[in-house]
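Write out this protein's structure.
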Amino acid sequence: MVNRSMDQDEMPNEIDFQKGVRGIHHIASGARVLMPVSIERGVWEFFAGKAEKREVAVSELVSDILRREIEIHEATE
């Protein structure tokens, strides 16, 4: 591949994938994914309090709640 400057929207004619790694960004089924999410402070405080009472991590509690919401949504479609 020839090194030259390109316009922002221009794609190169060829791309060298010789050092590429197959599947490097694959997320396995059932894997835990760290995904930064912004929520309102009051919402965080509510779930943090519930998680503390249940002695579970906030992420575990929120994942359970979202999983139930998905099930409800799919059942009502």
